[in-house]
Amino acid sequence: MEELFGVPTQQLMWVLLAVFGAAALILGLSALRNRVSFRMAARNLPRRRAQTILVVLGLMLATMLFSASFTTGDTLTNSLRVQALENLGQVDVQVQADGSGASGQQQFGPTSSERASYFDAKIAGEVRDRLSGEDRVAGVAPAASETVPVTAKGSDLSEPSTSVLGVDESSMEGFDRLTTASGKTLKPSDLGKDEVYLSADAAKGLDVGNGDEIQATFAEKSGTTAAPNAPPDAAAVAGAVPVPRPSELTVAGVYESGANPASSTSMVMPLQRLQERVGEEGRINSVLITHKGPAVEGAAGTDATTDDLKPLLEENDLKAEPVKKDAIDQADEGGETFTSIFLLFGQFSVAAGVLLIFLIFVMLAAERKHELGIARAVGMRRGHLMRMFAFEGALYALLASALGSVAGVGVGWLMVRVIGKAFAGSGFEISFATSPENVVIAFCLGMVLTFAVVLISSWRVSRLNVVRAIRDIPEPDNNGRSVKGVLLALAIPLAGAGLVWQGLQAEQMGLYMLGLSLLIVGAALVARVLRVPERISFTVAGMLLLGLWLLPVSFAPSGMTEGIDLFFISGVMIVLAGVWVIIYNSDLLLGTVVALFGWLRGMPPVLRAAVSYPLQSRFRTGMTLAMFSLVVFTIVTMSFINAAFSSIFEDTDRLSGGFDVRADAGYAAPIPDMNEALKDTQDIDESDFTAVGTRTGISADAKQKGTDRKPETLFLQGVDGGYTKNVGYGFKSTVPEYDTADEVWTALRTEKNTAVISSDLAPSRSNFEVGDGAPTIKLSGFYGDDPTLPDDIYIQVEDPQSGQTRSLRVIGVLEDTAFFAPGVTSSRATVDDFAGSPVPAQSYEFRLKDGVDSGAAAKDLEKAFAQNGLQAVAVKQEIEDGSASQGLFNNLLMGFMGLGLLVGIAALGVIAARSVVERRQQIGMLRALGFQRAQVRLAFLIESSFVALLGIGLGVALGAALSVGIVDSFAEQISGIRYTVPWGTLGVIVGLSYVAALLTTFLPASQASKVYPAEALRYE
């Protein structure tokens, strides 16, 4: 992973190391000058080992989250790089005809829908001459590549999309060599006329080996003599499409690696023989360039190479594709996106960790209040006291950050294992990796964050009153009427008003709602300064905040844009509101608990002892509640959203547009009329298919008409009447002249130069994308969320080869559930007219008769049209597989966020351990009054259970309540989403959280029960 949120990771590492080094130097010099304070701080770590372990475990969580996120990003980056380099090997730059290459790939479907254009083979020599003086260039080779269907003779096995690479062996110096499993090198010059080398994956798929015969169907150049067994309709389209040419070939060898830049399913033959089979003698469709050095480092000279070739390529309408550099950049972007996702959704856990750090040091100060007071009385200054806590905090932070950064690597390893299962079957293999730079960044981030909170806590601790500390008298509550309290009470509403104004100006709902929330929070603080009772001030403020975020009525002006920041703002605010309402009405809560469970024999005194203490320590209990609630709220909200989106996948008809099977044919042997082909095929019952839709396509440079934006390459698809008459996709936005989806599809079919676009291309007021979610082309001047689309939105497309242009009028924006619709769809007639000749049909959609198994139908189609390279898939199975993978990834994300529960659990453990020490005399008094050991243990367990269940219940209630509005908002945009309660997930969340909390507090509770009354009463 090279970048994080757009910042280079190496640069970030050095900046953080500089900050860490400066802080460490200052602390080290201070420790040398204040050795007594440092020794007093250091001795506290081994004195209470159990407490130290709990503190370190609590502090290390934020670092562990950072480290796990970075490890996940590193692993995915490495995996994507490995996959890309396997297909590229030593090829760094690829020269092709303008308009060829990646742009020829369909948005959906596994096959390439257009072949790379050929050009004069002499260009390779000119490229070699241009680069001959460059030390970085290791080799230049002419090549040709095709994608053809291959069938094993004597069996039904076929590989519908096999890459064929034609190479000139004399020019392959510096490139990968064809290598067998035993390490033997295969030479293309050793091949006979009808012999080829086959890749191991292709040989496995065809179940063939050395000496076996296969049949490959090549696409011969139009105008040449058709092969004897070519389809009878080939002549009818000879002027528009290549002529299929079946060829009998013999497998002369099987290689494990080296056929780059072909796919894993490939075969290799001499360049001249491939040129003969496709009718392109003396022409090539690619020039391969390799640089010196290992695979990844070879991409470093890409920019210089493309600059050297630019004049030559422009003269010949060619382009230099930086294939390896692009592949590495895409891999890095993918890893950065995953890292960003985990960091963003781990924010609540990090926030809870910050609260825990603050709480821990406040509690440590409270525990040592008497000791600190005596130290101040004998001459220790406030600055010395602050340094002592800073030293102790730094030692805790150092241990926690070191352990957290290492533990995060282990957590990241577990996470990528789960991600690997989510991608199982897709051909994407996980290759674990982590970098020292990112481990260092995680360590420094955790250290800096922890120590910053420690400094704030230390400053707060140092401001104790000596007399009150020695006598262990609580500090008086000035109800926020100190100078700091008054300034804070005035600053927060002013900041809120500024954010409201900024939100209105920028039309950002997140800023606007945060401003309103701060106005309410500030009003409560001002009311407290004005001596309004705290219960009234904070209860009313809490209820107003809950109403602001949870009521179905929107308090923001219409037309504002929403982003993922709104989710995090809402979470923090409603959890704050919930905690305020509970804490400032704790006496009512205590009465309710006693009334509900007080009838149990012997329980009233135990209940009162258990519940009263946490409600008396409002700050401590409130912080713990906030920690628990924040994390539980996040997980619950995510589980509701996942359950809502899962309901979409139940309606496969809606997602597929009503089609049951999708299929793609290779360009070597297209099927011009699928309906007629079904009639002529003996192995298929034509009556099983009630509708067939056909899609064609062509690459084009596109931009919105009337803008000065740079055109971007997209794949323009055309659909025929079989598609438009039967597709079930609706529209979220249409031009005013059409009222129904049928009218839009009819207009697309009958009116030339019209188009519909997917919702991904339409601007939206809601933007919840994480990472690089930019559409293929940028459109503006409208919102896809609006029901009416302006009638003057045009997409200007240009054929990069002929220079011909068209302006396509956008008449509709497809609904979000149109998962299998291309980005820009026009009619087949429009695409043919734009191309200047009929474009061969290659993609097909089939609707089946009721009762026909779609999986079996897909297999039958592949078998019947194996020579055409047809690849078919049952749409329902594809949707179910996608849903399962998405669900697994979502569960992983929730599990990652669930790590934040460790914060709340650690807080309970620290509080319970602290309570045993702090209440030692109270425990002795209770034991002296007749409390049994079991009753003392039960009281502590009930106390922990009360806080844990209160936090869990608050998080579940708030998450469920907020989810109603979130799901309703999604449902307005994506039909089919419905509010669903994930009972199983909620049960797991509550059960695991509660059991873990009890396990953490059982040891302190047992210790409390073993306190002897006489010893406790003498304890000071």
Report what the structure shows.
- With 1020 residues, the chain is an alpha+beta fold.
- It contains 33 helices and 27 strands.
- Strands 5-6-12-9-11-10 form a 6-stranded mixed barrel. A 6-stranded mixed barrel has the order 18-19-25-21-24-23. The chain has a two-stranded antiparallel sheet with strand order 1-2.
- Helix 2 crosses helix 12, helix 4 packs antiparallel against helix 29 (901-918) and helix 17 (534-550) packs antiparallel against helix 18 (565-583).
- The radius of gyration is 35 Å and the shape is elongated.
Write the SSE topology:
Elements: E1 3-4, E2 7-8, H1 9-33, H2 35-42, H3 44-47, H4 49-88, E3 93-97, E4 119-120, H5 122-131, E5 137-152, E6 158-167, E7 178-179, E8 185-186, E9 195-199, H6 200-206, E10 213-220, E11 243-255, E12 266-270, H7 271-277, E13 283-284, E14 286-291, H8 302-315, E15 318-321, H9 323-345, H10 347-367, H11 369-377, H12 382-422, H13 436-462, H14 466-471, H15 483-506, H16 509-529, H17 534-550, E16 562-563, H18 565-583, H19 586-597, H20 603-616, H21 618-646, H22 652-656, E17 661-664, H23 674-680, E18 689-704, E19 712-719, H24 721-724, E20 731-734, H25 741-750, E21 754-757, E22 766-767, E23 794-798, E24 805-814, E25 824-827, H26 828-835, E26 843-848, H27 854-864, E27 871-874, H28 875-898, H29 901-918, H30 920-928, H31 933-973, H32 983-1009, H33 1013-1017
Parallel strand pairs: 6-12, 9-11, 16-22, 19-25, 21-24
Antiparallel strand pairs: 1-2, 3-14, 3-15, 4-13, 5-6, 5-10, 5-14, 7-8, 9-12, 10-11, 17-26, 17-27, 18-19, 18-23, 18-26, 20-24, 21-25, 23-24
Helix pairs in contact: 1-2, 1-13, 2-12, 4-9, 4-10, 4-12, 4-13, 4-29, 5-8, 10-13, 10-21, 10-29, 12-13, 12-28, 15-16, 16-17, 16-18, 17-18, 18-21, 18-31, 19-20, 20-31, 21-28, 21-29, 21-31, 29-31, 29-32, 31-32
